[in-house]
User: Fold these one by one.
Assistant:
Number 1:
Amino acid sequence: MASTTTLVDKPPRERILSTAHDLFYRDGIRATGIDKVIAEAGVSKVTFYRCFPSKNALILAFLDYRHALWIGWFEDALRRQSDRKAKGLMCLLPVLEEWFGNPLFRGCAFINTVAEFGDSFPEALAACRSHKQDMVGIIAGLLPAGELRFSLASAAAVAVDGAIVVAQFELQTSSAKTALAGLELILSGLHKIGSAG
Amino acid sequence: MASTTTLVDKPPRERILSTAHDLFYRDGIRATGIDKVIAEAGVSKVTFYRCFPSKNALILAFLDYRHALWIGWFEDALRRQSDRKAKGLMCLLPVLEEWFGNPLFRGCAFINTVAEFGDSFPEALAACRSHKQDMVGIIAGLLPAGELRFSLASAAAVAVDGAIVVAQFELQTSSAKTALAGLELILSGLHKIGSAG
DNA sequence: ACGCATGTAGACAAATCTGTCTACATAGGG
DNA sequence: CCCTATGTAGACAGATTTGTCTACATGCGT
């Protein structure tokens, strides 16, 4: 997950979206006021409201943007890892280690959004659900076709979400060792199930 | 997790805390104003601020209260299940199924709090970390003493947190089937590791 | 040169939030 | 009877929030 702070002279909509992304992800959505986004993006209020008719619209755009950013990174990182040695679900370990080690890591934006809004913002909830489904789909792609493919991918996704949360709880300095160790044990258990039966 | 709505004539501090618990857990902390807690608890503003000098103090009291409530329920439910058939980590399945089936289920209050506040409220973060450590300790109690005890308990906790999050994402009507199926697969994998090596 | 897109700066309204304050009621102990 | 503790009701201050509005600047195509 690269930072998104290269936005010198892009069109205002992109500047706003990129700024909102960084602030929403770092500080939480509710904690981030529109005025702060406007000031940090260096646009005027009129410009902002011409691009996004309301804060809710910005939130939905943020979720789309984050989705594209994260899924893009995830697929790329998996590709990089499976080019190396790791096989099957085990690719997930170095990939997540890379993410958790990023100093900007603050958990999963979609988990955090559901935690903040629950079902009080249905469109946002739908976007979060869709994101997680896509993640499961990509994880399923690591597995050979077969009866257990979807079950194993769903279980691995449960483990990944758990590891994300545990990593979020750990101190920055620990680089999420507990989360990754737990995930490794889980994935090796799932591997046995997948290969042996 | 029982509801907490039996608070007719308790002392005001308990009424406030119980009301705050229900609102904070259901709607989120930031989304719940002090005025709403006050109105719903049926106390006056002066009374409220005599019991809790600030909203942050109420939040910390809420986390303590929720911790006691949840850990109490968790230990009791595990005891009930291990009295029956389930053994070791497998006790977790019916226990979590019971929780996820509760219509008031809205995920883990501590995960949600970390998602809302991150490290912007260090005392709250510390309370959340402490809660999760206690949860890992209880899970470790399900396992025989041995080299792998702590590793397996940590891994199971990762899986439990993941299942909580996935259950939170699922529709109310699904009773969190995906989360529980994934957790079951994970726990059976961990069981193999624990017993065989 | 004109008109229009697009931009900035910032006042403003209306709501909401936390926290303090005054004024008043009530019940129990000495 | 009176004092104090504990409670209610609600006004108020001050900050912050979202969203609208006016007034002005700048650049571009025709």
Number 2:
Amino acid sequence: MPKTLPLLDDVSPICCGPLGNSATLDLDDAIALAVRLKALADPVRLQLLAYLLAQPNQEACTCDLAPIVSLSEPTVSHHLKKLQTSGILTKERHGMSVHYRVVPEAIHAIARTLDTGTWAQPTLDQEARYCMVGAS
Amino acid sequence: MPKTLPLLDDVSPICCGPLGNSATLDLDDAIALAVRLKALADPVRLQLLAYLLAQPNQEACTCDLAPIVSLSEPTVSHHLKKLQTSGILTKERHGMSVHYRVVPEAIHAIARTLDTGTWAQPTLDQEARYCMVGAS
DNA sequence: CCACCTTCTTGACACATATCAAAGAGGTGG
DNA sequence: CCACCTCTTTGATATGTGTCAAGAAGGTGG
């Protein structure tokens, strides 16, 4: 995640006249939303997600998912971790295997955010649930 | 220019049923959806989009947008191009300046796709409207 | 404790992407 | 035609990302 993003201090519209009042998107909000979208923006992860959504409990273990996308298990594990740390999947051990399960509210939240154009963040506690960036 | 974007002729218009009808998401569909999500999944582009959405006609020119994100114009041009080739913005010359405008249907289409879980592609003509990859 | 299974982490590599400076391309107006 | 403005492309560079092989970590059952 690039750290070079802007502060919206001195915005002086030049050629197109005074632009509407600043319904600008706060940088932190933009980053948080981008993190979640980035988690979704990969063909492999979309395929994994589609498979999970089609399962009875919307869950499966890594060894089932690897063959679905024809990739090595470490690679699949990497993708699952990315989905999990973005709050799109949850992770649970059951004996030897690990079950990943879809969190539909997370996907709905992203969809709603895009649809309504209200791109600001959910409150902080929701944020902690949905987007545990840098944590595990 | 990276060649990794999907060719529209190859997109199979499979419209799977709601959430959980088909266990697998076709690779082409996954790629096409991922391309659009990737276009959104960047803080700079989200801020540009938020600014555009706040404008009267949901449009602005490059020279207005560059100060918004405090980046050089070539960089902003790069981001705008990415949004445009994903069908999220349209581009129009007006004299010396170029106006980029939001295509709300494109964003709604992505949101709906996520929300309903019907992740297969729209039909080809919609695809041609929304995702003019390789065309200008 | 040991063999074995599933999963994750590490290290390495290739490729994609964000960014800027410099130069080019398109358009306006003297 | 030429100076100037806006915008895009090109080239270069740094960072990010997807992938795998190899090995470590966590758990089961003899």
